[in-house]
Specification:
Elements lengths: L1 H5 L6 H11 L3 H5 L9 H11 L3 H24 L2
Length: 80
């Protein structure tokens, strides 16, 4: 494992999948430098489902989220 962490060795695909399964993450998350900071598991599941949707549906959901975020920020700004 330390050789993988140090970058001196690369695990084969089947080992990479086993590691991801054991950690409950995707192989993409193991290979990426990006960290997912969503701690709410229900919310994370919903985002994962959205990824599989067609582009038009994703755009509509993003617009709805943008509206909700805008309203949330406005309420925060005026409640001070």
């Amino acid at each position: 494992m330390s050789r993988y962490e140090l970058g001196t060795s690369i695990p084969p695909a089947n080992v990479l999948k086993d590691i991801a399964d054991a950690l409950g993450v995707t192989t993409d998350s193991l290979l990426s430098d990006e960290q997912v900071l969503i701690k709410d598991k229900e919310l994370l599941k919903k985002f994962e489902m959205i990824q599989d949707m067609d582009e038009e549906t994703k755009k509509m959901i993003i617009r709805l989220m943008d509206l909700a975020i805008r309203d949330f920020k406005a309420k925060q700004a005026y409640s001070v």
